[in-house]
Amino acid sequence: MAKQFRWERAWESFAGGFTGKVAPKKGLGGYNQQSAKRERRANEDLFWALVNVLNIFGIIVLKHDDLGTAEDAEHIEFLVGGTWDANKTVVNLRHKNVRILAHEFTHAMDYLKRRWAGRAEGEFIASGGGYLLVAHYTGLYSPSFDIEYAKRQGAGTGILRRLGDYVPELFSEMCELVDSTQRGR
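The chain above was modelled as a monomer; its predicted structure follows.
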């Protein structure tokens, strides 16, 4: 069996959350100070790399104390952690959080590529793309939050079938952008 790239294992895990075919966990877990320090550094590096790419496209990132609430597809209210505003070309964040920024970054890159996505499609793309970015650059983690969020916004197996090839393609393009800004350091 050929070795899988980290992002391929991550995509398998994310997609499996919609089909019920969850990929078996590989490797050992655990905590140590050295790996925690590396993870914090990787999160910080990715956060600023994403901000740099957004800035290249004329998109600014703003931090707010409160972004209010929104309703999911089931009309259940939740606190908003981040938003992408295509009209103002702004990403708004409630916290300096690389996972939320990666999600909003994916919304922005998808918008620049396709211009529009319905709510369920857009959240599926942003959840999948954001998860792949963070998993690729900082290490694998459980996609359960990303999967549940996309499902709460109406994403399901039909969207997975339609966009299952698009998300890894967009991810690859986003990696090229991130890598190009990091080479210039």
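The mean pLDDT is 89.
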